[in-house]
Amino acid sequence: QVQLVESGGGSVQAGGSLRLSCAYSGHSNGGYCMAWFRQAPGKEREGVASISSYGRTNYVSSVKGRFTISKDNAKNTLYLQMNSLKAEDSAMYYCASTGDGVWWVGPPPLLGYQYNYWGQGTQVTVSS
Fold first, then answer.
1. What is the DSSP letter of 108?
2. Rounded to whole angstroms, how far apart are CA atoms 20 and 123?
3. Quick one: which of 91, 95, 116, 128 could link to 22 by a disulfide (CB 3.0–4.6 Å)?
4. Are 44 and 114 in contact (CB under 8 A)?
5. 49 in the Ramachandran plot: left (φ > 0), alpha (ψ -120 to 50) or beta?
6. What percent of the chain has pLDDT over 90?
């Protein structure tokens, strides 16, 4: 069973930075995609960034150039570095993972239904 625990959320002023972390466990091999999603009150969940087992990344257009997803396999930790934060980035951020055996060749997915495991979320609030 894959388990995911997010940390690193908080409050920051517009233009500031935060780094989210997601400690994961339970994968038995390297074939899986991981992603960050977010959901603001009254809005649908949105895929923000994803990374495949090959290290290929994918971003929603609104965060390109500002956010960076990365993964440290030795530490079993997924990161989301968020720079130049805007008020519209405020949301609950969730870490997600597919199951094993997903050797995704193209840009890794940003659709929620393609992910099987989810963390509890960490809140990010950006004040303008």
1. P
2. 10
3. 95
4. no
5. beta
6. 92
